[in-house]
Write a structure and sequence with these properties.
Chain A is an all-beta fold. Chain A is built from no helices and 11 strands.
Amino acid sequence: NAGVTQTPKFQVLKTGQSMTLQCAQDMNHEYMSWYRQDPGMGLRLIHYSVGAGITDQGEVPNGYNVSRSTTEDFPLRLLSAAPSQTSVYFCASSYGHGSGEQYFGPGTRLTVT
Amino acid sequence: KNEVEQSPQNLTAQEGEFITINCSYSVGISALHWLQQHPGGGIVSLFMLSSGKKKHGRLIATINIQEKHSSLHITASHPRDSAVYICAVRGVHGGATNKLIFGTGTLLAVQP
């Protein structure tokens, strides 16, 4: 099993550009989520999904869109990148409705100039 | 005040020392997680617990639900234990059951 994979590992964007961060898991987990990690702050939830076709907002959803068309994939879209979105992004998954052990991807380091 | 507080924020130890990292929280929880993040690396789950104590190798995690407090202990510490240790809790009410609340982490450096 590859676990949770994320691409790309690093990305530099200019303000206003859009892009999609990819996340995939091969553990058949129902629950998937996106977090951002900023210096001096705990991980913050952006969006999450409890199954294919179901998504919901987390703590900091503005500027991000998600969709969940399959159990395996949960892409995160930045609609119009802003410098405030410079961060490290982690995708995570778990079995059930998020009640189990969390499995994290390796992270994507995004810089918006 | 953050709902999850960790102490200390930074910790330097000598190889072989016994290490304790503390986590206090202010909300009702259904579970508490301890996570490890190596510099520049991904995040790995160490423990998930809702009561008592769990042990894995040199790592021990305890939780006291009444006092809203958990500790992570590392016995016979080694330089490879150097990492950020993160405490996270999952609430018990409604939609919050799916959402983890994270502490800001404890940066541990173990010197040889």
